[in-house]
Amino acid sequence: MRSSYVVGQWVRRERFYGRRQLLQTLLEPKASSVTWLAGLRRVGKTSVLRQIEHLAFSGSTDLVPLYWDLEGTDDAAGLGEGLLDALYDAEDELLRIGVALEDLDADDPWTGLEELVRQLGAHGRRLLLLWDEAEALAGLPPTVRRQLAASLARFEGAVVIATSGPRLRSGASLHGSLAELTASRVETHYLGNLESNEATSLACQDQIPDSSRPVLETEDVAEIVARSGAHPYLIQMLAKRTVELGNVEAAWIDLHADRSIEYFHRINFDLLSEAQQSVLRKIAEGASFDAASLSSTLSFLEAVGTTRRAHDGRYEIANESFAEWLRSLRSWDAGHDTMNPR
Amino acid sequence: MKLQTTQQRWHRSLGMAWVGLVLFGALGASSAGADRWYVHYDRAQEAIAAEDWSGAIEQINESLARRGDSGARVRSYGMNLVDYFPYLDLGVAYYHLGQFDAAIQAFETEERMAAISTVPSALERLESYRQDALDRRDQLATELRTRSQELVQEELATARRLEAEGRLQEAMAALDRTLALEGENQEAQTMLARLRSELLEADAHRARQQAHASLLAEAESALSSGDAGLAAARLRKALELEENESTRALLEQAQATIRNEVEAAERTVRIDSALNAARRLAGGRDLEGALERLELVFAVDPENRTALDLREQWVEQQASDRARRERNDRLAEAEAALAAGRPEEALTSANLLLAARSGDALILDLVRRAYAVLSRQLLRPGGTLPPAIRFADLRVARDDMPPAQVVDRSSFRLTGVVIDRSEVRVEADVEGIPVQVQQTSQNVGDDVITEFSVASRLGAGETGFRIRATADSGLSSSSEYRVVYSVPWHRSPVWRLAIFSGVMGLVLAGLGYRTLMRRRRRRRRFNPYTAGVPIFDPDLFFGREPIVRRVLQSIHNNSLLLHGERRIGKTSLLHQIRARLDGLDDPEFAFYTSYVDLQGVEESWFFATLGSTLRDSLEPALGASVDPPAAPLDQEYDHHHLQTDLRRWIRALESLDSRQVKVVLLIDEVDELNHYHPRVNQRLRSLFMKRFSERLAAVVAGVNIRRHWEREGSPWYNFFEEISVDPIALEDALQLVTVPLAGMFRIQAGVAERIAEISQCKPYLVQKLCLALVNRLHDQGRDIVTLEDVEAVKARVDGP
Predict the structure, then answer these.
(1) pLDDT at residue B369, as a whole number
(2) B707 interaction partners in chain A (CB closer than 8 Å)
(3) Whole-structure pTM value
(4) CA-to-CA distance for B204 and B198, rounded, in angstroms?
(5) B319 vs B619: CA distance, rounded Å
(6) A128 is a domain residue
């Protein structure tokens, strides 16, 4: 039987699970709002944008989404390229609304974008800019940023949702850059793990027809959700392997022989500040710390899905795999080569 | 010091020289006087007088060294005169030493000197001595000859005796001594020649016997350890050394074992293939097809247990399916009959059903209701009737004969019921012989229904069952039921013999055909193996089915990375995946594959390469409707153009097929991306961020796409599901060795395992070794691969 799990590509429609509350919030924004959707790698930021795009195009909202991938953009040319790609990607949907790309008669994409906004306005619609990998904005040359800011300022009623990691290379967050670019108040949402029922739904794949669903025992589903900490990427990796191998334990072992998991933990760990990393390690090792003085850090870590609260209120690492990896860093610190902690 | 004049110096040196000469002369004179010929000659005379013949010879030689010519009255020292005849004295000395030849020669030399002729006494002495020497020499020669002849005869006799005793070497030594004494002795020469060849022959024979024994021992050891191939090779060599009945019998035994092993292996492969095919068909509910496929197994191995079990299982399943359908039809008929007040008819239908499904609750309920109606009809109030026997009646009418049930199996069970107002005792006999009856009773209204069952094994032909039921009232009834057992044609001995003959004929024909094909392949040096090129033939692709299956299960949703060391088979795997996707008849997805090898592709040509490969791959499907590329496919063709083209091509494909389109990019040597600018990688990945990327997937293969791009913006960060391509399993490596060789060469036991060991189950190395082995066998005109062959090619394959 085909596997219905997706471990690398973004998803939407029936393959998108959970985040209902978030989607509802994002699709009913206040006028001219700017949202920063921050999260660690592989938590589903791109999928959220694509699902928003899908819901916006298929729903009754007046928002017209334009998904714009900013990955690798570091100059005006790159920005223009990305914008053109975004426009071509949405060509069919724009045409259905009544906007043809050929009608965007402009010498440069910025002018074309402004023309698009005007045409959408003429149809009673508003532009919803979906910026993915928006860290790139912070690295743009100042002149380019100014030009972009100037264009954005002319987008009346436009809405922006930008995704990125929680921290830029500089250590700052994207929040400031976005605020500066859009000259607006930026609302921040952290994307963390799924809710328990959403995670179960994802593991069971209950949004697809019965005949296509994987065959998993109820206790295996619970085990998968528990071990993965309801992280969408880990759920799918573990569930897929479980279906292939027939056994959660065997799948868990096989998964950790896969270097992707090690890289996954390391990348996410490196996205955090030193203080955040230190707190995580203390939690993983069961060391004591002053929770009161670290409340904002702890809150952040929980929001991005790295930690959770146990029944007794104690902080714990959200998934077993990450906890073991964090504990293995002690050997790394001691000078042993633990590229593969297992 | 006062300088001397030249003249004074000249004079001084001349004077010094003169003094030196004088001194030297004085010294020389004194030494010369001490070593004169006559001194030694005197000493010689003294030695002769003292009969010191050796000393005399020595002094005479010294004298001769100083004066070599003889002479009479020769001045020695002072005024002394002597007769100087040194050769005469030499001869005398030699005479006395018994060296007569030397003495004679000395005498002749003296005579030739002529001086002795002037001294008669000396001459007379010379002649006398010479004559004596001659006589003595002749005498000695005679004695020597006689002695030599005696010795010769002795040695010959010794040689003969030793030869008779078989001590040839010693005999030859005796003959050597004979010939040393008498070089021309014919007998010795003849005997020596004969002994030499006898010795040679004996040595050769001994060597052959030893070699034969050694080969025989090796062969017996090999046979007992199951290595018939090695045993046959050794036995054949042994026969070359010595033709021997027992050795030949052993060889035939080994050859028979080899034939059986090869045939068994081939049979096993064919049987396994047919069984797997049959199982697949059965899994797809095509039981008829599965049963047909089993016949292929029976043709090769009529007694194959697995096939027989499967056949039995599937035949039962077919029968069960049929019975289920029939049951439902007949149940409906029975209910209708009962409702129409025809209980007998209902019972007939119900009995037919109960014959197959005796415990079915619905049927039993119907029977009970039917019997209730029937009993009311039969048992009139106020009367007393004997028990009513009703069979599960499957009898058919026959002309002029009682009706009978016809069966095609020997095991038979007769069932029925007895209806009475009380419990009954049921008895049965088969052709007059009492048999056991199983019975159970239950009350149905006012009646007691007793179900009975009688089992029996039928002989061919007709058998009569008689049932007798006796009620508590004492009333009884009996009824007969006849059964005809007709042995199916396919179980008759004649047919079995015909089948067997047919199978043997097929087997022999198959063997003959195989032999013919084998010879043809050998003539054209056919080699099924390749090394270094991808494997396109699925029959030569072993051990990767789990990976292929995993890819096919995931490809509709995910992109995959196949990673493994060089030469592990990644390229072959990509091609096999492509072939499988191209041939997939999927109800949900329409796969379109495109294979591109990045090796040697420069960065500036990357997107053009992708674009042209995709266009060429999709053109057959799109045909005339394919849009031309967005730009010329050269270095100016970039990722924008590719996106535009992909979008259009996918849209066109979607218009052709109602299924979900999936374009699968198979990228080989993906490590080349490591050499490209990060921007190129980002642009490639951006293809998979587009909306049309839901219709796009990639399977990439490489040694290690650069994982140290671990920054969060890395294009390939956790993008792929990674699958490790490792050496294949041992059983697959063994199949890779044995299956392609089947029908062409035989393989000695242990060869496949050794190849798997050397190659570490890496398919490329297995292919390389087998390629070399096949070529080697063609070169040598042999048909069996041995362990020696493997070791020989191993060195060649390993290289310097």
Answers:
(1) 79
(2) 259, 263
(3) 0.56
(4) 10
(5) 51
(6) yes
